[in-house]
UniProtKB/TrEMBL annotation:
The protein, known as: Xylose transport system permease protein XylH
Stated role: Part of the binding-protein-dependent transport system for D-xylose. Probably responsible for the translocation of the substrate across the membrane.
Pfam families given in the database record: BPD_transp_2
Entry keyword set: Cell inner membrane, Cell membrane, Membrane, Sugar transport, Transmembrane, Transmembrane helix, Transport
Chain residue ranges for the region called Disordered: 1-22
Transmembrane regions: 38-59, 65-86, 93-111, 117-139, 146-165, 196-214, 226-249, 255-274, 304-323, 343-373
InterPro entries hit by this protein: ABC_transp_permease
Amino acid sequence: MTSTKPPQTRESGGSPAAALTTGTSDPRTLIMRNLRQSGIYVAFVVIVALFAILTDGVSLSPGNITNIVLQYSYILVLAIGMVILIIGGHIDLSVGSVVALTGAVSAVLVIQQGLPWWVGVVAAIAVGLAVGAWHGFWVAYIGMPAFIVTLAGMLLFRGLTLQVLDNISLSPFPAEYQKVANGFLNGLLGGQGYDAFTLIIGAVAVAGIAVSGYRTRAARIGYQQSVESFPLFVLRILLIGAVIMYFAWQLAHARGLPIVLIILAILVIVYGLVTRRTVFGRQVYAIGGNLSAAQLSGVKVKSVNFWMFVNMGFLAGVAGVIYSSRSNGAQPAAGNMFELDAIAAAFIGGAAVAGGVGTVVGAMVGGLIMAVMSNGMQLMGIDQSVQSVIKGLVLLFAVAFDIYNKRRVGANR
């Protein structure tokens, strides 16, 4: 009598493959997969350490870390929407112009017409939603390529911004509006020379990441999918936790927890759950991974595409509020090149050019890499032209690594 044992998932063993992951036996494939999953975090830590050395520790000072959060928060908000579009096989070249337009509408209502500050916030987000619906209509229901639609939108909404502002800048916003991007929560729980509330929030964030990561890993093992070894998983969580707590410690010794960081954290948590735990999120991945298969599986492709662009418009409206609050006004040239920074954040964070691959957290790390690089080079006094060259090369190599990784994994299957 022959007995059949169910397949077992191993986390460690006598082979190089077992030490890295499960579900396959080719060490090269496993290494490439683990590099793709965890390499971005290692790269982030290395870049932070590099600029800390090059700037004699100034880049890691409490004040500078706070400035990084405040100065690049709107790019990270845009990166959330951009990575979802890229996962679905699209792109949006108009988000910089939409940021300018939404900020301009808010400024006209609040500064010129004297309406309450929250009216400007609501109006900016409403304009962003309308823009997203406009793009979604042309892409989803007319069938035009997103590249062309949003390129036209870049020109269209930049022109509308100039008309709304009548080619002049408007400032200042009331104090309540400025607090959106410049306000802090400090002293809620006390602390001797530091803000205890900021440290508690940092610890809660680390605990949430650890629990979420463990549950995701356990679910993948249950479905016989490839995962990293448990020691490597623990090392990654410890590394992420150490980075988060270090930044929380620095913020606690500066001005406390920025309000904009709370907004960003909420968005990351919500969209992380949307992309990983909801039907809509799975459909976005399905469309970007294999459009024909998604259609045959009953996915309502037009509807999903439409709401992806509506979501991008919503986040562009949020970014418009944050940016106008940060700059304390609205300018005709606001948002220039923001779309390229958001796209770069998504690709550096692991999104695939062909779609179907990427994560919200990865886009955040990619955006932080760009932020740390830009901030570090500014502290070093590097010319703006050289900064552009370096950031362009980083983006190029990130996409090249994605293509190389995909070819290696495909060749080893």
